[in-house]
Amino acid sequence: MSQHVSNQRKTGRLRKLKAGLLPLLTLLGGCVYSLQPWYPEGAGGADPVLRGVWREAGGQDTWVFIANGDSLRLLYQEDNQSGEFFALNFRVGESAFLDLSPVPGSYAAGPVSWYLLPLHGLHRWTLDQDTLRLSSLNPQSVETLLEGTDHPQLEKLDNRLLFLGSREEMAAFLETRLQDPTIFDEPTILVKE
Hints:
Elements: H1 3-25, E1 32-34, E2 52-56, E3 62-68, E4 71-78, E5 81-92, E6 95-102, E7 120-128, E8 131-136, H2 139-146, E9 154-157, E10 160-163, H3 167-177, E11 188-192
Parallel strand pairs: 1-10
Antiparallel strand pairs: 1-7, 2-3, 2-11, 3-4, 4-5, 5-6, 6-7, 7-8, 8-11, 9-10
């Protein structure tokens, strides 16, 4: 098959993907997602310090991390809505991250509908005794950081960013770009019960 035909097929698939994602992602808040896991093959795991029930300081959100073999399951409750996610911990340098992806069949409507598709979200986390701080990527800061640079294929859908790169490209991106603390939102602060 010629390179030209192959590129036309990829372009057609990308147009269909974008057409299908845009209506769904418009329901989501301004976030950064990936079609592939954010961590390199074999690097994800469960950190036992995260297990337990965590409540948002001054809020009602509840995050429950449960052991699930080599990973964690996250049961998330916001108001009367809930969702269930696979949560894999990994490190890049000194920073700890969580890759969150929905458990198939557990998609929820309402506030947690940001994971209607099997996308991967990224949260940087720090722990100070019984206080867990989770920060997600800020799409505007990521876009500014990436201007004029070589990076995995990225699509902007309204005010959301979707990385389409391979797993290897995402891991390389993390190693070179995500150590910059300015690209993360203010943390959500959770307190262990």
